[in-house]
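Pilot study result, target chain (469 residues):
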Amino acid sequence: MGDTQWQKLDGNAELVRSKGTTYREIADAIGRATATLDAIVDDASTTAKAMDATRSLASDVREDIAKATERYRFTGDALVDYATALDPAITDSETAATQIATIEEELAAARTTADNAQSDVDGLPADAADGDVDSATSTLSTANSRVSTLETSLSFWQGRWNDAKADKDSAAETAKSHIDEVVTGEKVNDLKDGFWDHVGEAWDKIGKWVKVVCDVAGILAIFLSWVPVLGQILLVLAAIGSIIAIVEGIVKMANEGFSWGALFSIGMGVMGLFGGKALGALGKYAKARAITQTRALNGITEARRFATVSELVEASGTSVSTRVADVLKSPFVQSATDQKIWRMVQRGSTDEAFSIWRASKFPLPYKDGALRWAVGNDDVADMFKFFGQRGNIVTDGVTMAAQATATIGTVTYSMTNHAKNAVAIGQAIAGGDGWGMASSGNSIVSGPAGGSYGSLIGKGINITKAVAG
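Predicted structure:
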């Protein structure tokens, strides 16, 4: 039974409870039948040969049906317990769903107001008076504050919905584990079902194509991640591909013992899923903190020597906790840029939307190529260029620590990735594997281009290889 996010949870507690009660009644009936057969077996008052045969048959039948008693009993108890937990979970989810729908409507209006305020800030001329800049910035700050308040409220009720969903899922998992005990586990009593015996074999056959689907989704996400619903589905599928690789490495270590190679693969997978985004966010934080401090100590005029009006506003508008949450959610949700592109398309500003999409996904190839190759992260590369400007940029210990961590982390990850691919290229050349050479060489060749070039080329090679193989 599938639940729709932010909607009332599916399920019928009364129906589940009824089914559980039926299973309990069957167990009781089996118990009564077993007792009757016990009486026949234990009846020593009749010595006829026909009764001897009846007692022997009763004994055999009793043993067979007694095995089913525990299965029906456990299944009935599990279903009734699940129904007891399901009822309040559905009620809580309905309350949360109502709140979420109301807040989402208010949030959509608030975001439109914030977008208009942002457009006013972006439209300020370079020689705008400080008073005009402060006024536009204040209006934008108020609008963003309203958006932030609604987002916090929305997050709270989404959390309540997630709690209800977690309660339902936990109860379902508990019921499943109890049922599994009498289906495939310790209490199977020789009444073994064969379905799960074939699951592992089936996964071996379809696993390759699951990865292909995820890689295809990764390529499509580059072009369509800004599209509501579709974009989120594609992003989740692309992230699942990375998660599968991580899980495979963990399973391999569990089955074959510790391996540095498997551990390295898991680490690279985790970095690919979250690490690069986390380091990029840290670089943006260092830059934002420096902009904010420069403005606080030296005034807005001095700060604007190093940052645009939009960067000044962005630097003061996002908390550390929000940045951390954005990193954790990033593999599965649309980015702020993708959301902005969608809103522009809705307003009919398709040319501007395309320009922003092109700049974010496919920046000018190999511009600042050496820096991109070294750090492998456009946000950190941008941080380098910001701090490389001449002038009185104010920094403190926290800013410098964030800057150093982002630098060391991205350089280490990038160099490790280049080294891994260089080794793989050598192995592919030695083995005559043209696909391997192309796939491993992609990172080294496309890395300095920045943007999504590497993902597009690399995943395209992997897909072609998988389909051809």
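One observation from the pilot: Residues 290 and 396 are 8 Å apart (CA to CA). A full batch analysis is planned for the follow-on phase.
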